[in-house]
Inverse folding.
């Protein structure tokens, strides 16, 4: 029943979370200070003076909330201690925001460039119907609010140096990671041969339209093809016709595509048929959950808590409802932040319908954000 | 008298017990639905005040050679330690604020300013004590394996010294708590898992070492020439916290009216009967809001035992509903001013240091329930419904 841990959990957490390594003297000073504040950390006291003076949990202050087209807003964030400012263009961050006393986490692509953004970060959030967190971020966030951050993640990134010929395919809020890439190229001062196929319902709903046109004016290498679906229907990727018209040499370009699920599926098939699958990189903002689990009880071994769930509730939602400490990231089965060992019972991956069964001796990791219980199960969290 | 069946003792029908169980479940649901920003703000405010007091106290003690500064610094540090253990640590480790999803205020990661590692506390307190509350032989909190607090517990000549043990426990309370999860009783019967014991002792020692270095070496050293006076100030602050938390905790289950149970009670005990046992086994005390906060909300011991994981700032409103239910079902609701409750505790400590035959107490551990229980017990808020 009782296990012995080598280090109090809080201190362990602080070490994991501390992203910026300290110098030898800094570390000794910190060690000494920790001996004075034990069992707490110096950060627990410093953050009373300024919430950003803590590297225990990454956090940021909202400097500004800038309204954008199409029910979206850009959050300008000033990260606190521990943030290392080394994200790659195209990556996303987890943002935790307090609503009604509770922290909720969501992931958003960073729109700020990887270089030259100073000590600020930007994400652009579109208020989703029934998405109360995104709605709160767009409409309910006051400058000065403290939010939490998770370190940047994702491999939908632009390498440095970039390839010589690039195609960006962006639909709706799918422009956000690509904007970070464009801004990064702009700050570095060398934009190669880039074609951006940018689709939105209409000109008013097109995010960052002015800025992108201005970039295209300044950089002869950047060609922007705007596609308004209210006028011309959705950009069809069922065959090559639309793409051939927008960018005839698309087969020769390294491609990054981000947008709705259906568009990305179609793009994947198209590039596959053309034998160019390896040239296409995708970023999905949501996962299609098909299967359902079965009702049962989910037990969280470390807290001993247990919660009854139906087959539609993900393990992550179940844990959060019950107050268990659940790691969480993208909430769509991509980032693997939420992975937790399954000690017993069976869970189903809601995307594929695949089942995973756990045993005490062999506890496979499961993605709690896209898995649901099939009967009773126990998670090691 | 230890109770072997709480339902029979309370003279409630199956239907009553079930209805009562549902009524308590309703209270939980209502509070869970209301939990929100106010509760989050409450615990954060207490944490801010507590840490502010700790810093102010430590800083004031840099002048601890100057007696008024010694007194002020010791007072602030002592109150900070009390708040940290009682209103913050104990309640956070119960998971009362886990719903906030805040990794910095969460039962799984909280560590407190006392000798016992949080992990061992959560086992001995959250699990053993809160599950088996007042069941003799299961709940180690019935006398903490040191005192004889129920007359069903066996007497031996060493028990005569229990007024002295009681005093020592008050003064050294954090050390008693630190060893609480160790199954010391099993050491004598050699029925102990040596590896587990070693692991726990090592864990305690690692923590204790840090605690001692902080209070008795580093902070005194920082204050330079005031080394000794800062050390005595820190020792006094720890003593304040020890005696205060001892007193509050002893008033939770040892005043008259808080009853004990035999292990038979646990057979087929339903959730509803578990609620009933918590009500019969716990005692509140009355006082101002400030007193309740300093007591870690344990003046609402009955509510705390019914709902150990609901936010402590909700206990006052929960108490109103619990009292109504107790009145409706003619159940005891033991409470009184703190001095009176603690007076009863002291009397029990003294009385039970003697064998039962010398104090006129019945010796049989399973006396059947009296037809009219509780009449002589203080129940200021319990209104008998039926004659």
């Amino acid at each position: 029943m009782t296990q012995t841990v080598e280090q109090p959990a809080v201190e362990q957490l602080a070490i994991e979370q501390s992203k910026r390594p300290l110098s030898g003297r800094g570390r000794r000073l910190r060690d000494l200070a920790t001996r004075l504040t034990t069992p707490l950390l110096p950060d627990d006291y410093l953050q009373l003076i300024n919430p950003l003076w803590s590297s225990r949990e990454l956090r940021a202050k909202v400097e500004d909330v800038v309204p954008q087209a199409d029910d979206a807003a850009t959050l300008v964030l000033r990260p606190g201690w521990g943030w290392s400012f080394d994200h790659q263009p195209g990556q996303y961050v987890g943002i935790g925001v307090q609503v009604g006393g509770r922290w909720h986490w969501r992931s958003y692509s960073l729109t700020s460039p990887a270089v030259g953004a100073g000590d600020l970060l930007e994400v652009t959030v579109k208020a989703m119907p029934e998405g109360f967190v995104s709605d709160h971020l767009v409409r309910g966030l006051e400058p000065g609010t403290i939010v939490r951050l998770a370190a940047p993640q994702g491999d939908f990134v632009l390498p440095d140096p970039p390839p010589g010929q690039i195609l960006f395919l962006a639909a709706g809020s799918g422009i956000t990671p690509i904007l970070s890439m464009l801004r990064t190229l702009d700050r570095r001062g060398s934009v190669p041969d880039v074609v951006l196929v940018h689709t939105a319902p209409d000109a008013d709903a097109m995010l960052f339209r002015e800025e992108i046109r201005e970039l295209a004016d300044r950089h002869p290498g950047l060609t922007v093809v705007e596609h308004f679906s209210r006028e011309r229907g959705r950009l069809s990727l069922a065959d090559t016709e639309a793409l051939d018209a927008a960018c005839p040499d698309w087969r020769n370009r390294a491609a990054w595509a981000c947008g709705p699920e259906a568009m990305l599926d179609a793009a994947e098939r198209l590039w596959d048929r053309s034998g160019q699958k390896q040239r296409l990189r995708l970023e999905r903002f949501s996962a299609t959950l098909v299967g359902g689990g079965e009702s049962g009880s989910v037990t969280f071994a470390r807290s001993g808590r247990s919660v009854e769930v139906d087959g539609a509730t993900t393990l992550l939602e179940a844990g959060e409802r019950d107050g268990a400490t659940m790691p969480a990231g993208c909430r769509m089965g991509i980032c693997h932040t939420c992975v937790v060992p399954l000690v017993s019972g069976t869970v189903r991956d809601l995307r594929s319908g695949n089942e995973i069964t756990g045993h005490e001796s062999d506890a496979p990791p499961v993605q709690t954000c896209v898995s649901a219980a099939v009967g009773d199960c126990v998670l090691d969290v | 008298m230890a109770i072997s069946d709480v339902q029979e003792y309370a003279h409630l029908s199956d239907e009553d017990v079930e209805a009562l169980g549902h009524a308590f479940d309703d209270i939980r649901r209502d509070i869970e639905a209301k939990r929100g920003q106010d509760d989050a703000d409450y615990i954060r405010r207490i944490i801010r005040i507590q840490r502010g007091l700790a810093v102010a106290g430590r800083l004031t003690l840099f002048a601890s050679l100057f007696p008024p500064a010694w007194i002020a610094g010791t007072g602030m540090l002592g109150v900070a330690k009390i708040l940290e253990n009682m209103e913050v640590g104990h309640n956070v480790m119960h998971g009362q604020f886990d719903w906030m999803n805040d990794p910095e205020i969460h039962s799984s990661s909280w560590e407190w300013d006392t000798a016992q590692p949080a992990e061992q506390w959560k086992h001995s307190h959250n699990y053993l004590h809160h599950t088996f509350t007042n069941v003799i032989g299961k709940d180690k909190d019935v006398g903490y394996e040191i005192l004889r607090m129920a007359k069903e517990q066996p007497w031996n000549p060493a028990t005569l010294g229990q007024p002295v043990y009681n005093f020592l426990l008050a003064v050294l309370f954090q050390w008693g708590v630190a060893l609480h999860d160790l199954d010391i009783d099993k050491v004598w019967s050699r029925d102990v898992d040596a590896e587990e014991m070693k692991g726990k002792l090592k864990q305690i020692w690692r923590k204790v070492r840090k605690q001692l270095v902080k209070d008795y070496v580093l902070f005194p050293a920082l204050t330079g020439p005031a080394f000794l006076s800062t050390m005595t100030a820190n020792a006094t602050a720890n003593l304040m916290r020890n005696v205060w938390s001892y007193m509050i905790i002893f008033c939770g289950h040892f005043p008259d009216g808080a009853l004990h149970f035999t292990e038979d009670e646990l057979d087929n005990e339903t959730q509803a009967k578990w609620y009933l046992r918590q009500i019969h086994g716990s005692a509140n005390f009355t006082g101002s809001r400030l007193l309740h906060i300093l007591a870690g909300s344990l003046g609402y011991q009955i509510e705390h035992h019914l709902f150990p994981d609901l936010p402590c700032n909700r206990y006052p409103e929960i108490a109103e509903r619990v009292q109504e239910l107790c009145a409706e079902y003619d159940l005891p609701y033991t409470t009184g001013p703190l001095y009176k409750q603690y007076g009863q505790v002291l009397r029990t400590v003294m009385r039970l240091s003697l064998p039962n035959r010398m104090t006129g107490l019945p010796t049989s551990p399973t006396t059947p329930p009296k037809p009219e229980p509780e009449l002589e017990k203080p129940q200021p808020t319990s209104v008998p419904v039926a004659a």
